[in-house]
Amino acid sequence: GNGHVDKRGALIVLEGLDRCGKTTQCSRLVSFLEGKGLPVEAWRFPDRSTNIGKIISSYLTDNSQLDDQTVHLLFSANRWEKRWLMENKLRNGTTLVVDRYSYSGVSFSAAKGLDIEWCKAPEQGLIAPDIVVYLDIFPEEAAKRGGYGIERYEQLEFQGKVAHCYKILCNSSWKVLF
Ligand code: NYM
Q: Name one GO cellular component term (predicted).
């Protein structure tokens, strides 16, 4: 075209339990795509660099107590505050490889017992991913990996509930990797 980008970037989301290897696979995928000469960026949620992200980060490291609904909405707001930048990047042809997205938001909150439909509601209107890759791992396996148990949620029983919620959200368009 006339100087503008004809091809939208892809929104690629990686999901899975804590310590399933998402972060490693995200950076491998980013390197691979870079190697192909594609404009690509690694993103992650929560984005702890924003004001909302800092509240979330302190909640995850146990320095603050917040009720489940409030935390849920903060995680969602953290995606909303990045939505416009995300749209611009994609429009300009940059592919985004995103470590966690709405599915983490819904699964982790629903695992606490919040109504799953209530959890989905604030995610409506965020940009839909082109691909969701789910890294399937037994919670017992993840628990053996380094660093497990440092942050809130990194407990075997809870991760089992999260896995169950992911399975409710999973559909045939997801690529499930073992
Ligand atoms: N998490 C992440 C949520 O509970 N809701 C969300 O919307 C998102 C994006 O935050 N245990 C949880 C999952 C993780 C924790 O993520 C921090 P990470 O990928 O360890 O930084």
A: mitochondrion
The predicted-structure confidence for 94-153, as pLDDT tens digits, reads as follows 999 999 999 999 999 999 999 999 999 999 999 999 999 999 999 999 999 988 888 999
Q: Express as a percent the part of the chain with pLDDT over 90.
A: 92
pTM of the model: 0.96
CA 143 / ligand 1 centre spacing (Å): 16
Helices (H) and strands (E) in the chain, counts: 8, 5
**CA–CA dist 63, 135 (Å, integer):** 29
Domains in the chain: ranges and CATH:
11-177 (3.40.50.300)
Which ligand 1 atom is at minimum distance from the Cα of 56?
10
C-alpha of residue 73 to centroid of ligand 1, in Å:
13
Pocket of ligand 1 (CB under 6 A): 18, 45-46, 60, 75, 99-100, 104-105, 108, 153
